[in-house]
Amino acid sequence: MIATFSEPQQKLRQDVNKIAQGRVAPRAAAIDATDEYPYDLRQLFAELGYYSLLVPREYGGQGGDITSACIINEEIAKASASCAQMTYSAMHACCMLLFGNDEQRSRLYPAIASGEKILGLSATEPNVGSDISGIETTAILSGDHYIMNGTKTFASGVGFWNGWFTLAKTDPAKGVRGLSIFVVETNNPGVRLGRDDRLGLRGGGGGEVILDNAIIPKANLIGKEGEARRILGEYLPLARIGHAAVALGIAEGALDCAINYVKSRYQLERLITELEDVQQVLAEMVIRAETAHSILYQVTAAADRDNKDPGLHKHGSIARYYCGEAAMGNTTDAMQLLGSDGYSQDFPVERMMRDAKAYQILEGTQQIQRLIIARNVLRG
Ligand SMILES: Cc1cc2nc3c(=O)[nH]c(=O)nc-3n(C[C@H](O)[C@H](O)[C@H](O)COP(=O)(O)OP(=O)(O)OC[C@H]3O[C@@H](n4cnc5c(N)ncnc54)[C@H](O)[C@@H]3O)c2cc1C
User: Fold this and answer.
1) Which residue has the least CA distance to atom 6 on ligand 1?
2) How far apart are CA 163 and CA 184, in angstroms?
3) What angle do CA 264, 267, 270 make, to 5 degrees?
4) Do domains 7-118 and 228-379 have the same CATH topology?
5) Cα separation, 83 vs 268, whole angstroms
6) 106 phi/psi in degrees, rounded to 5
7) What's the CATH code, domain 7-118?
8) Is 303 a pocket residue for ligand 1 (Cβ < 6 Å)?
9) Residue % of the chain over a pLDDT of 90
């Protein structure tokens, strides 16, 4: 890779790589197979400061940069994308809290930094995915709390995380201008959860957040009522960068597996690395990984200079799109190079391929990323 990192960032990469390969990789297959959440790794990541990295210093964090947060996501994802969901989530919560008030930051940042609270995002509903203007969940103010009703689906972390930044309509008559964001926690009265069974990212949790006359403190409203679109407009480019880093890690992990495999696989008494077809496929995989890496870290550098840079709208989507393609492309090619071994659960490639698909769908499908990119250039 062409180095674009500071010395502390390079050191961080080496340190996280050791943890990922030494502590996470040996567990990855079992986490996937059993769909069991790795509480011990959650705790380990807390001790290593992965959740506190982006938390501002005044709230007990490290006040770190987005590039470093993405390095963590990428390195952990090389070993297990499910585990990278945890580090990604801390990044996402920190970015979302940029829009919170002092009380919310004082209350939530220290718990995020210590790993006590992992907060996801809950937007998707049975009838609503790409177009959030159709959200049906409602939040009606009643004294010092909101009464929330609706069902959220596909929320990552369900079963294990502590809450979600949740989208609900405070004024259904106003369409998307009546949409607001709340912190909904699992211990709020009226919140129930339902696990789903997903193809990939297993062991990370996921499912429904059911809001049945849920009582959500007024203090949990992020920003003002009706501000969800504005907040998401600024927040989502940062979230996409974090997802892109996980996707990049999957693409690189698959490349590593393929290289190791072909270097020891003989057919007709010669190593398959001698076959030009194999070299061609490997070269394509390297090009994808290197291109994804360059795109991502140019965008993280821009975000570290100014996390409200309007260019991040287009470039965050380009990073998410391209890294998602690289993850899917590299895992598919890796499986081809491994042949039947790639298709078997004795090798990690089939897990990586199932995980990769998520990064062409979640928080905006590839089609939606392309729409964002096109609309940005057409606006001029
Ligand atoms: C592993 C995983 C984790 C997830 N985690 C979360 C989470 O933590 N929180 C959460 O809220 N959601 C989560 N999701 C849900 C995800 O964000 C949605 O699935 C995604 O936004 C797409 O919505 P949808 O599935 O309803 O598809 P739809 O919006 O119904 O789209 C169906 C198809 O139509 C296409 N399409 C839709 N609109 C357009 C358009 N305008 N132009 C072109 N094509 C279009 C889409 O690209 C797609 O191919 C997760 C999903 C997965 C797979």
Assistant:
1) 155
2) 5
3) 70
4) no
5) 40
6) -65, -35
7) 1.10.540.10
8) no
9) 96
Whole-model pTM over 0.90: yes
CB distance 96 to ligand 1 below 6 Å: no
- The CATH class given to the 228-379 domain equals mainly alpha
Compute the average pLDDT of residues 212-226.
97
Contact 166, 152 (CB under 8 A): yes
What does the pLDDT look like over 84-136, one tens digit per residue? 999 999 999 988 889 999 999 999 999 999 999 999 999 999 999 999 999 99
How does pLDDT run across 326-364, given as a tens digit for each residue?
999 999 999 999 999 999 999 999 999 999 999 999 999
Q: Which of 210, 231, 314, 250 is nearest to 73 (CA)?
A: 250
Match domain 120-222 to its CATH number in 1.10.1040.10, 1.25.40.10, 3.40.50.12780, 2.40.110.10.
2.40.110.10
Output Rg (C-alpha) for the chain, integer angstroms.
21
- Annotated catalytic residue, options 74, 225, 227, 363: 363
- Long-range contacts of residues 6-9, Cβ cutoff 8 Å, at least 24 apart: 8/68, 9/67, 9/68, 9/71
Question: pLDDT tens-digit profile of 155-179?
Answer: 999 999 999 999 999 999 999 999 9
If you measure from the C-alpha of residue 110 to the centroid of ligand 1, how many angstroms do you get, rounded to a whole number? 32
- The tokens of 278 are what? 């194999």
Per-domain boundaries in the chain = 7-118, 120-222, 228-379
Is 299 close to ligand 1, i.e. is its CB under 6 Å away? no
| Annotated catalytic residue 75 | no
